[in-house]
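We were asked to recover a plausible sequence for a given structure. The inputs and outputs are reproduced exactly as logged, with field labels preserved.

PROBLEM: sequence recovery
POSITIONS: 180
GIVEN STRUCTURE:
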């Protein structure tokens, strides 16, 4: 038996903040399991045209604060160029905010591996799970996919309409207070 160290290939994915992933690569590939799955999910079939004239926003995978900053900019740019409407902008913005919140205090999907960080992460996950279970879609989880999608769209539309109405009320109140 030899005492020679076994060299394990590392993932070569470069994050948007410039760091190399460095996790062990899947055998025969240059990426870890996570980045292999992400690259597969994000790859588009050759020659596939945009859907009914809609050009997708080229978001980057939300793995750190730098990628989230890029995604916020891409969304704002699409809205500014009128490629998406206000309703779509607000929905996507709220989703991006939720993803940014998932990054936690470290700004990374992977938290520090010390015991205190693990306990904090576990308690946050438990709180997040409780929030999720009690959230606006909790009662829809048992529905078939098609019914779930329709009900979720309906609720998201209502939430967006409620937000817009609240914004209009605030604007009216501000305008009313400024005239007295």
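RECOVERED SEQUENCE:
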């Amino acid at each position: 038996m030899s005492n020679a160290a076994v060299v394990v290939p590392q993932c070569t994915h470069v994050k948007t903040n410039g760091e190399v992933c460095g996790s062990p690569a899947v055998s025969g590939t240059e990426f870890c399991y996570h980045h292999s799955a992400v690259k597969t999910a994000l790859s588009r079939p050759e020659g596939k045209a945009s859907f009914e004239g809609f050009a997708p926003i080229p978001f980057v995978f939300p793995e750190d604060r730098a990628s989230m900053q890029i995604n916020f900019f891409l969304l704002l740019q699409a809205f500014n160029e009128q490629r998406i409407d206000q309703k779509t902008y607000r929905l996507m913005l709220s989703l991006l905010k939720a993803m940014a919140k998932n990054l936690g205090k470290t700004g990374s999907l992977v938290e520090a591996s010390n015991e205190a960080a693990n306990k904090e992460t576990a308690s946050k996950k438990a709180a997040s799970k409780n929030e999720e279970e009690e959230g606006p879609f909790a009662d829809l989880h048992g529905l078939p996919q098609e019914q779930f999608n329709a009900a979720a769209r309906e609720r998201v539309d209502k939430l967006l309409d409620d937000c817009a109405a609240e914004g209009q009320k605030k604007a009216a109140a501000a305008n009313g207070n400024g005239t007295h």
